[in-house]
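Example 3.2
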Amino acid sequence: MDIQLEKKKGIRKKHIPYIAGGALFLLLLGWIIFGDHSSTLKIDARGISIGTAKFDQFNDFVRQDGQVQPITVVQLSPQEGGIVQEKVVEEGAQVRRGDIIVRLSNSQLDLQILSAEADLAEKQNHLRNTMVAMEQDKLNNQNEQLTLELETTRKRRAFQQQEKLYKEDLIAKEEYIQAKEDYDLAIQKYKLISERIRQDSILRTVQVDQMEENLSNMRQNVLLVRERKENLNVRSQIDGELGLLDVVLGQNISAGQKIGQVNDLSDYKVEALFDEHYIDRVRPDLSATFERQGSSYGLSVRKVFPEVREGKFRTELVFTGERPDNIRSGQTYYINLELGQPTEAILIPKGTFFQSTGGSWIFVLDADGKKAHRRNIRIGRQNPQYYEVLEGLEAGEKVIVSSYESYKDNQVLILND
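Structure, written as tokens:
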């Protein structure tokens, strides 16, 4: 008779692998669902810079170095080209308006002057000879007019005598007709000579006026050529200091070529180059300040040049009050240009993290300072010290402001002491 064996209850040894596999699967599933998958990197806390976000007054300004320049600079350029004959004044000398700086010589211009003067003399002689000929012709016409006038008088008297005799039948009709024809002919000749004299007078007046005008133009041309001779003397256009004179004796200078400059030292300005990021915010009349020898001085933007070169645009600023002692052209001042009124905002210190993030995110430390998590933020304005944070941070939070170049692709940083 067979005996029925009872099955053992509980976990048997052969079930252990299955149970372990199931537990591992559940753990893996839980890690997938609930675990933190952000990329983590351990870094040395001593190699980073940490800043604290704070709610404070934000001063909207930009700091830039500027160079002192004379208020006005006038370029020296000869109106006529020539050879440098003499340097009358040396660089650094004080000059007055109209003072000769450089004398030039131009043999070609000398020949032009001689040629113009010769043409003028020839034109004057021609006009004189023409006037003499016209006067002689006028006298001849007047003499002819007098002769015809006398002849007309005689012909009229003869005609009148013949007319009386004809009426008394003392002469033949033919003689009377001839006397009348002679008288009529004399009258016509006299009218012709009178008309010719009138026309000649009009023509002579027009010719003389034209020649006088031509002569006047030639005289003016000679004066202009002589003025060109005077232009070989390069003169100062203002009172000031000769700041640059780039010529040597015997050098050939072209007309309009820059050979130097005169600086107006009655006042000064400051020229500064700003990043193109500020070109829409920098405008005339903005205020600026700078420190010099323990004192503060005020400036105002006078001109903003629209052209951008190598990421910079140029501005001119003028003093609004006292000038520093011993101010000199070429000195460098570090100016603070006010772009707007101070406002209250969340601020974080400036740092090199901005180069990697563009201000769109930052690493924020936990309360215990052991970890830093990546967080999106929005940065507004900036000045040389702080960034204005518009979104993403609260006052008192600590952030990493040093470079992110080594871990810009990570989400979590673990700070090791």
